[in-house]
Structure formats: structure tokens, C-alpha cells
């Protein structure tokens, strides 16, 4: 079941673009490492987002031109960045007051696993040889108003990442609001995984087969 | 007369003792006081507990201090990074202890320690492994975990400009943990690219007031970790 039509679903760029559509104008946004970082390339026309990076910069701009970066102007992934006009620098306690004090509107994170009740696991596989490293993930999910996850629907081995209960150590319980995958957009509801949108050419059955917990179909429009 | 400037990095770290808790500023290489760390390696203190967000990279700066066997315990949020091999090897062999702390909790524990607050409650880590064994309490219907303030015997930080009273300003994202660590260190030691007379820094833009600083030492052209690592430099 994992070998068929490998090109089905969205590319990483398309996934990032899809998330960007759901971010309102004027939002203060924290982007995790990986696919979330790509979102900066797809800000919809007429909207402005301010990016927060937890190591002390509000108003993060794009990567610097070749040879123009500075070792002390970096993002949370420790890559060199720029600061936009109107940016500010601040110390760590202030940066995490923005996060933990509920001042940031949206964070977009990657995931190892998401459970149907919104539990997120994205910091450790709990393996005996793993070096545990959490960074700011637990702060972000505990404090930011809306937590979006963007991830491939399945692991490289074809196992579902959206499951009934996380087996890896949690980043936070019941914290995820929406999941954007290569196959679908899914909302966490009281009832579980609610399908919001299928990627072009992808069927409900195809997604449901690759989801490790019940997937609730999009309600049919009421006939009137 | 107050003049906190000391003549050398060696003089600045001379009294750091075996078993001390040492906070070291920096997030990755931004703000890492490499010259003070190298002076600490030369000085020889061992059995240290070090507080830093990471564990260094390559074999310079913090990674070199760990490699030299001087660090008994790391308190940090993210002990692996690009080019970070020293800590993972020692950790896997059981030669170094790790206290893993969420980054915001780490920052707030340091701030609290410096502000005379022995403990506080936060929602971060509730319901996770990192809250296990900690007291929790419900406020307004939500559960919070109690975290302890964190103090140090010494804090080593880096800034852009200091005056001889110890007022500091920083460089871009190199500020990160330095201001709270300056507050939480019993003795705070600062390396700065330039030292100026009192009055030469606008009081409106002072980030760390001099009361939190004990020693200032000029390191005019501080090395950058990534440049040293790329050049294959190791220390000592």
C-alpha cells in the first residue's frame, strides 16, 4: 500500500503554501525547523506576517545574501538570517514571555506523531541511544494561541504519523489545532481527526487508510 | 572608586573553583564568550556544573571545556547541534550528567534565580516526561508545574560594549541568555569588544545595568565558533 503513485499529494513547498493561506494578515508567527521555514516564501498577496524566532528577534527577515551573513544574527535553527526594518532584539526571558504569555498568534511545527486528541510528540523517539533535546517546543505548544502541525502524512517507512495515541514522549497533551500533510488538512476536534480538505487527486479512502485513527469525513452540504 | 575592568581573561576567571556552577551565555555561537571559556580551560577548574542552552560545537569554546573533562553536569535545553559530537559521546558513555530543561523554563529559572524568586509555576511541560517528579498545582482550572529558580557561582557572558561601571549593551541575537545570567551569577564576568568610560553609553539603551556585573575584560576581536570549527581549530 505504500508503493503506489509516489507523486500523489503535495510537495513540501505546496504544503508550506497551503499553511500560509490559513495565517491571517498581521499575525505574529513562530516557525519551526524544516517545512515550516518554507512558509516565508508563500505569504499571500496583501498580507503581512511578523516572524518571531525564540533566540531573541521579532521581525526575522530572509536569509542574507551570500557573504553578507553575521554569526550573531541567527534564528532558532542557528542559521544566519536578517532583520526587517522595524525588527527588535530582546533577551531570552522576554522572548519566552511572548510565547508563554500568549502573545504569539500561531506556531507551525513539525511532528513525529499527532494523536486524535491533539497530543503532539516531536522532540524525542525515546530511544536508548537518543540524545534528548527539547529546545523551545514545549514552551511553544503550551503558550501560543494556535498550534499548526505540518508534516508528511506517513513516516519514511509508510507508518501513519496521525494515530490514536502517541507512543513517543509527548511535547504537550491536547495542544494541536490543525494538521497540514501532503494528503490532507485535518482539524483536531472533540470527536477526533476531522477532515477539512483533501489534496488534489487524493481520495478520502486513501487518506483514511493511511491514518492510524478514525478520520471523520467532511460533512455533506445540507440539502435545502 | 568603581572600575570593574580587569587586565586579562586569565585574571577574570582566576578564582573559579572546582565544583562551581557556571552559567555561560550564548545560543549556539551567538553570544558565546569563547575567550573566557578558553581561559577557564587554561585555569583548570573541574567538576563544574555548566548552564548553557546547548553544548557547543566542534572542539572549541564550550565543547572544548566539555572535551577537557571539566564538566560533570550540563543543564541545557538542546544538547545536540550541527558539529556537536563531544557531548553526545560523553553522555552515551555515562561520563557526563544532563538536566534537560525546556528553553523558556531554563530562561525563566535563570531570571527567577537572579530576581530572588525561589520557584514559580508554568504550563510548559505539563503532561510530559519533563514534569515528572515535580510539584504541580491548578490555577484558574489549568494545571501548572513548579520550577525552581537557578543561581550560579559565576556567570561568563559576552557583550558588544561595556563601561567601567559594568553597564552593558549587546550585539543582535547574541544577547539571548546574557542579561538573566548576569543577574543570577554571584560573580558575573563579562568579555566585551570595547570598554568605555561611564556616560559613554546612553542610559536609555543600557540593557544590563552595572549592578549585575562584577568584572569586565576587553576582548577586542572575539573569535566566532563557526569560523574556528570550519578552520579545524581545536582548543587547547
Account of the protein in words:
- The complex is a heterodimer of chains A (224) and B (236).
- Chain A has five helices and 13 strands.
- By secondary structure, chain A is an alpha/beta fold.
- Chain A has one domain (12-52, 92-214): Glutaconate Coenzyme A-transferase, CATH 3.40.1080.10.
- A ten-stranded mixed beta sheet of chain A has the order 4-3-2-1-5-8-10-11-12-13.
- In chain A, strand 2 (50-53) and strand 3 form a beta hairpin.
- Chain A is globular.
- With 236 residues, chain B is an alpha/beta fold.
- Chain B has one domain: Glutaconate Coenzyme A-transferase.
- In chain B, the strands form two sheets. In chain B, strands 1, 2, 3, 4, 8, 9, 10 and 11 form an eight-stranded mixed beta sheet that branches. In chain B, strands 5-7-6 form a three-stranded antiparallel beta sheet.
- Chain B is globular and about 50 Å long.
- Classes of the chains: A alpha/beta (224), B alpha/beta (236).
- The A-B interface holds A 53-57, 70-74, 78, 83, 89-93, 95-96, 99-100, 129, 131-139, 142-143, 169-173 and B 27-31, 77-82, 87-88, 91-92, 98, 100-108, 110-111, 122-130, 170-180, 207, 224-227.
